[in-house]
């Protein structure tokens, strides 16, 4: 379903530490909770820490994702419920384009799109991933009518038979940039069935969804691809992905917020591993490694055990293994946290260090 490269991202699970049950962060009033030295974030005191830190993951706080799920539910009329678990944020739709290309194509695979279309897709998709953009020419046919499928099909077959290119996704822009039109429901159904036939993903950039004016009875207005129930038309929901963001409808292009909405958890998992972000010290806790574990299972297993023991005393830090360190037992400590949190965390580490073999 994903490309080989996408599967590698999904396996890497770089955001796994943020998924599942989150431990309560340290509270300076009652001195309870986990002191996290694990993320390179600069805490600005006085502001809501969950919204402005990595606490709930580098893919948007739960609150933000829930708010977006509500917006999508109210305005896109999704056929199946959309929750915060179906949404992840990056810095604008532009970054999402790269994420889609990286996860859905391998180098030289193709992404199909009609002519004309938003010109920056070329750079956004092909530069980071080395995929190829395959343009379908409509030769006078209406690109928004079901007959456009014939042109898309010709382009897929030509790419495959004449150039050996495997098309992995169809990219549409709805409402369309630059044509300024919305896709009618029946065309979206035909596009979905076309994607199902060739087992390719449909990426629908709906960044202008709410910038629709002068609706009249002759058109449906904006119809999101999410509002079509794929099961009713024999289409796999895992092939459908929507891109949305703040740049157009919220006139906030400088905010750099874009989101991916998908029912495909494997794709979301892969996409999480493509995102990244100095306030650190690299510290040596190798004296606290369990020598029996080192002898039985090796140094890296002992480092993982040490990491768990630190978590038990309420300190979370990234360990050396994650940074390809040469020897086990090193940790990255972030010092750009509030002073009380820093003091509490350091005192927990020092006590732990002295009681587990370290010398002062
Ligand atoms: C169709 C389309 N998608 C994406 C973008 C860029 O979106 P963002 O600012 O979220 O990167 C634009 C900007 O013009 C656009 O026209």
UniProtKB/TrEMBL annotation:
Aminotransferase class I/classII large domain segment(s): 60-272
Q: Which top-level group of life is the source organism from?
A: Eukaryota
Gene Ontology molecular function terms on file = pyridoxal phosphate binding; transaminase activity
Q: Which Gene3D superfamilies match?
A: Type I PLP-dependent aspartate aminotransferase-like (Major domain)
Is NAD set as a keyword in this record? no
One matching Pfam family, short form?
Aminotran_1_2
Q: Which UniProt keywords apply?
A: Pyridoxal phosphate
Give the protein's recorded name. Answer: Aminotransferase class I/classII large domain-containing protein
Task: Give the UniProt family note.
Answer: Belongs to the class-I pyridoxal-phosphate-dependent aminotransferase family.
Q: Might you name a Gene Ontology BP term for this protein?
A: amino acid metabolic process
């Amino acid at each position: 379903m994903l490309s080989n490269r996408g599967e590698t991202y999904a396996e890497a699970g770089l955001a796994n530490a943020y998924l599942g049950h989150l431990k309560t962060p340290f509270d300076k009033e009652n001195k309870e909770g986990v002191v996290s030295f694990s993320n390179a974030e600069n805490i600005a005191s006085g502001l809501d820490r969950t919204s402005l830190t990595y606490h709930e993951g580098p893919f948007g706080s739960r609150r933000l994702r829930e708010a977006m799920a509500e917006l999508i539910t109210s305005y896109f009329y999704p056929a199946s419920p959309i929750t915060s678990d179906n949404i992840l944020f990056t810095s604008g739709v532009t970054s999402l384009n790269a994420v889609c290309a990286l996860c859905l194509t391998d180098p030289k695979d193709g992404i199909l799109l009609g002519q004309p279309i938003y010109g920056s897709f070329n750079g956004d998709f092909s530069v980071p991933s080395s995929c190829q953009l395959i343009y379908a020419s409509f030769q006078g046919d209406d690109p928004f009518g079901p007959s456009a499928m014939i042109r898309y099909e010709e382009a897929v077959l030509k790419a495959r038979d004449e150039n050996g290119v495997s098309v992995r996704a169809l990219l549409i822009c709805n409402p369309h940039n630059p044509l300024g039109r919305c896709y009618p429901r029946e065309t979206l159904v035909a596009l979905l069935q076309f994607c199902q036939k060739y087992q390719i993903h449909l990426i629908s950039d709906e960044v202008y969804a709410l910038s629709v004016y002068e609706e009249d009875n002759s058109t449906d207005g904006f119809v999101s691809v999410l509002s079509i129930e794929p099961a009713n038309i024999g289409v796999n929901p895992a092939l459908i992905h929507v891109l949305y963001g703040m740049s157009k409808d919220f006139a906030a292009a400088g905010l750099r917020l874009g989101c991916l909405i998908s029912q495909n958890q494997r794709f979301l998992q892969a996409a999480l591993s493509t995102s990244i972000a100095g306030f650190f010290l690299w510290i040596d806790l190798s004296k606290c490694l369990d020598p029996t574990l080192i002898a039985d299972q090796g140094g890296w297993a002992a480092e993982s055990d040490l990491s768990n023991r630190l978590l038990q005393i309420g300190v979370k830090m990234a360990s050396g293994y994650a940074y390809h360190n040469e020897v086990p037992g090193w940790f990255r400590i972030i010092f750009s946290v509030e002073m009380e949190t820093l003091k509490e965390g350091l005192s927990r580490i020092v006590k732990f260090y002295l009681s587990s073999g370290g010398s002062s």
